[in-house]
Amino acid sequence: MSRPEETLPPDLFYNDSESRKYTTSSRIQKVQSEMTHRALELLQLDCPSLILDVGCGSGLSGEILSAVSPADGGPHIWVGMDISASMLDIALQREVEGDLLLSDIGQGVPFRPGSFDAAISISAIQWLCNADSSEANPQGRLSRFFNGLYASLRRGGRAVCQFYPKNDAQRSMISSSAIKAGFGAGILEDEPGTKNAKYYLVLAVGGGEVQGDITNIVKNMGDVDVQDARRGFSFANKKGDRKGSKAWIMRKKEQMERRGKVVKASSKYTGRSRRRLAF
User: Fold this and answer.
1) Over the stretch 56-103, which tens digit does the pLDDT of each residue have?
2) 129: closest CA among 253, 262, 258, 6?
3) Could you give the residue ranges of the DSSP H alpha helices within the chain?
4) How far apart are the C-alpha atoms of 75 and 179, rounded to whole Å?
5) Which of 67, 165, 237, 247 has a CA-to-CA distance to 91 between 20 and 30 Å?
6) How far is 42 from 277, CA to CA, in rounded Å?
7) Tally of CB atoms within 10 A around 17
């Protein structure tokens, strides 16, 4: 059976019919509730917070955020973003309490820096790993998302993204993109080795108590793969490559590709000096 993200882009897959089916399914409601509560447990919020719900769908997770009791640090205020207009329409019909934004997370997170205390995402970010067109670069979409998410969180903020990687390569691509954006990152696997296995990417922004070290969040948990290799600095320009040389141009092209830009293919003429003709 093919994975949903391999059949159609999310804005087409979650049409009116599929969105309503997803929202009214008792099985999906139960699983969504369990994963949202697990994400809240990993966020460890001890006071009412402003939370970004990435891929909020019809607001199933948002309802849980709004219903957290004061004894457990709630209730929380939330803003949801999703690429499916049908999902957001159902959320409006259900009169959820959060604010809603129609947006493609693969194009970034369009909020002012430091807007949110925390973020959650349930079963959404694996959709970024599939290219819907020749110009859609999965690595670029992941990079734009995680860079935007990092900027939108306050210093010391946290994020938990539950996702279903297709394989180890996809899992590594997602986690490495988060690390390159500056996050401290740890992957927690629930029910490992079973068909019900669920992965949680736990992220922390440097500053405050966390200091960007994700081990402060998951150090006492089992089955955790901790990766804390935050963005380093490159001194590639000190290699002495002359501006405009082939090596300089190739390095610039690689940088643009990592950012998701469309780059012209290189050829034997790349970086070659042009002959000037005198008249």
Assistant:
1) 999 999 999 999 999 999 999 999 999 999 999 999 999 999 999 999
2) 6
3) 10-13, 16-24, 26-43, 60-66, 85-93, 138-152, 168-180, 215-218, 246-258
4) 30
5) 165
6) 66
7) 9
